Amino acid sequence: MLSTTGARPNGWHPGELAVQNLLALPQLVSPEAIVQALPRQHSLFHSTRLHFVPMTTLDRKARPWTSILTARDGTIGFISSSSETGLTINAGLWPGDPIAANLSGEAKNGKNVLISGVGVELTTRRRNKFGGYVQKVLLEDMDLTLEVFVNEALGQCPKYINIRTLASHPSTSPELIYEHLDMDASDRLPAEVISFVHASDAVYLATSYVAAQIDAERFPSHLGTNHRGGRPGFVRVRPSDGRTLALPNYSGNRLLNSLGNIQVTPLAGLTFPDFATGSILYITGNANTLWGKAAQDLMPGCNILTTITATGFVFVRNALPVRHGPGIDMEKSPYCPPIRYLAEEDPPARVATDVDLQLISATIHSWNLGTFTFEAAEPLVVLPAQSAVFDLSDVIRERAQKFIPLVDDPRRANDDCVRTWTISVPTSRVSLNTFSITIREKNEGLATHILFEIARTLGGNDAGGFVDLRSYDITAKLRSLGADHYALDPVPAAEGGRRLLWAAGGIGITPFLNLLDQVCQLVHPSNGAWDIVLVVSTREPDVTLQLIWRSLSSVQKRGPSVDVKISIYLFSHRPVVTSPLPNWVSVTEHTGRVQTSPNFFKDIGATDRDCHICGPLPFIQSVMAGLELAGVDAEVVRRERFTY
User: Fold this and answer.
1) How many whole angstroms separate alpha carbon 450 and alpha carbon 161?
2) What is this structure's pTM?
3) Structural domains present in the chain
4) Which of 168, 343, 357, 369 has the highest local Cβ count within 10 Å?
5) What is the C-alpha separation between 613 and 593, in angstroms, rounded?
6) Going by C-beta distance under 8 Å and a sequence separation of 6 or more, which residues neighbour residue 83?
């Protein structure tokens, strides 16, 4: 069993670096995103919103297991936090829960045993993980009190979390069905357990990083707990041995913490909860990550997957005191890809769910900002501020090389080719088949670079021009339409109309472009007045104002309207040269970055507006600091960042 008092370093450990280099990924997220304490928002989140928390511990063979800790009656409030480094958990256990045995020895004797967890609110997809070590443990009559010192915290990717509404279900009768902690070489998982895996749409992945002596001081050992989600059956069990589970890797925040841990310490645990029946399956085993051809040979169509060969498992029925609320079913995440089956399986006949797309045009607004328009093979219903989940395999791996020179880039083989972008121009009454995305070409980005290079090449490098791409047969797949994060209610929130504050950093303007179009449809005396303040930070003020004006196209013919007031506060290091906006849309220019002084946000009326922020993490943090200083409750501010 591992113990440590060291904090998480501000750097990626050797396993994480190895995996990032193997995939030739740019460093999209700084290691500084992992903070060495528990942010206040995380503390409140864990203590006031969660029905359960998955937590990882090691057994005496250093194998990781994840437990699902809950209050005895499944209610919220079983977690408390008295400091930025402390969590106290009061949970009720059931027979077979591995944490009881894992914490029975050294932790009771005062040793700092490693532990990790992840708080997930399934209703909203909010999620935060944490790690540290056990300071104190008390276990009496299956009631557990656990004090944890937290020295690392990080937000996780929400994309594959399927939505559930949970409720307390205190009437449980846990029944330990299987408890095989040490499987023989010839053992297989029972058919009932395999069926349970193939019916699951969520699993919690436990990993560990055991530091080599040479790395221990700089990169101390630690544990990891992560959520993995998909469509029911996304985790497969190999029929040939009946004990090896195949977990496909879906593109998330690209930190690759779990894969990095497995690269150094090839062990992992999987815990499958069933919130309909209360059953729970714990598995631990030997882990291995397959890449490229090796992954494809095992699971065709999957370029990265992890196998876990079970060495121990526990299955308990009717254990969880948290279940689906009455009449509530799971709402599948729109990001979840279709199930991929193992090469040795006989997959059932099924209907493809992806929609065929064709890239029909591109408009390059500046050297790295452009709008790309797609036509779908069937009509779509696109809600305001929705995102689209694209499968760009054909573009990246096949079609691109016909138009632009491509070097031998390993990312083309290892990349899953799935991207999510916010829709900036929705389908219209004229055509329900076309929609547009406005994106920025990222430094060292693969998908955006290819799209922009195709547009530049076929458009003759006209940096400001429209490129008709319909005749080039550039195709993609629409996997799904993402969640509607910012939908507007046409009924005013209060007497006097709707008062909104939108803050956009860079390409974070895209959901608000879509929403402006929606507002134009809603503006009517019967819906009350709309008062919108748009705070924008941009390197391209003229282009941004042109995009805003395009979104206001449905009111261009109306002229000034008493039903809508739009005030734009534009922060940029460049002055506005020409603005297409009329005088009924006010534009106030500011030099530099968005101000964080409370006076600025008070002056623009932030305290009595619905506040939404979209942009990169530093921008969100800066705006949040200003809003909180102005007296805005951080819990009611909607935030969306483009990290993932």
Assistant:
1) 29
2) 0.73
3) 14-324 (2.30.110.10), 355-481 (2.40.30.10), 498-641 (3.40.50.80)
4) 357
5) 15
6) none
